[in-house]
């Protein structure tokens, strides 16, 4: 009996040890697949009324506030072998690049749980990338250094954020960084003049009681 218990404990230990590696490998694989598909994509969706923006923003907060859904991630890993023979279910609309924190992420349309497991998600009821208004992108903070928006708090006013979309390179400059309550939808406010980019993630990493917000304004289009 004691021998069987020891074997069980060893197996459980191996599962606990290897799960983060499997999860990280799956995320890397999905990111690579959607990045490969990026150049095939050319799409732009229109903004809709503010009620839909508010509804989707609150839905986003529920997803961001539950970053530890291990059962769902385990299911995704189990299905990864099958997915390797298929195109990804989600396709990128662009690429987010922040050299200051060594970040390079695919941008996906819609803030679904799957999209947030792969890259930065565009809150599609907000302004399309590069247009006058406020474009909102969200990503998980991640507990692993350098993954997703883990290092977003390191950005400072004046730092540059780039988005590549439809063979165009949009260069934004950070002008504000602050913390808000999860329900504070004012971070999506816009005017009729500036082309704003808003990045959203959880803070602090361990409890996610607030949202870390980084605002940037479009300075140049290459």
From TrEMBL:
Gene Ontology MF annotations: hydrolase activity
Active site residues of this protein: 140 (proton donor/acceptor), 202 (acyl-thioester intermediate)
Keywords of this entry: Hydrolase
SUPFAM superfamilies: Sortase (SSF63817)
Name assigned to this protein: Class D sortase
């Amino acid at each position: 009996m004691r021998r069987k218990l020891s074997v069980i404990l060893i197996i459980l230990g191996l599962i606990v040890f290897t799960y983060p590696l499997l999860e990280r490998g799956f995320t890397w694989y999905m990111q690579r697949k959607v990045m490969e598909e990026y150049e095939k994509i050319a799409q732009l969706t229109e903004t809709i009324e503010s009620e839909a923006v508010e509804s989707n923003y609150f839905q986003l907060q529920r997803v961001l506030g539950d970053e530890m859904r291990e059962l769902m991630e385990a299911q995704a890993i189990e299905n990864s072998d099958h997915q390797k023979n298929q195109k990804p279910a989600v396709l990128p609309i662009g690429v987010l690049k922040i050299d200051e924190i060594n970040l390079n992420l695919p941008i996906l349309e819609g803030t679904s749980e799957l999209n947030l497991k792969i890259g930065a998600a565009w809150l599609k009821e907000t302004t399309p990338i590069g247009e006058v208004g406020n474009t909102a992108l969200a990503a998980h903070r991640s507990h692993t250094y350098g993954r997703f928006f883990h290092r977003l708090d390191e950005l400072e006013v004046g730092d540059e954020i780039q988005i590549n979309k439809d063979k165009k390179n949009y260069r934004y400059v950070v002008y504000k960084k602050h913390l808000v309550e999860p329900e504070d939808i004012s971070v999506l406010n816009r005017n009729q003049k500036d082309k704003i980019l808003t990045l959203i993630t959880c803070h602090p990493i361990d409890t996610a009681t607030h949202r870390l917000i980084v605002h940037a304004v479009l300075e140049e289009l290459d």
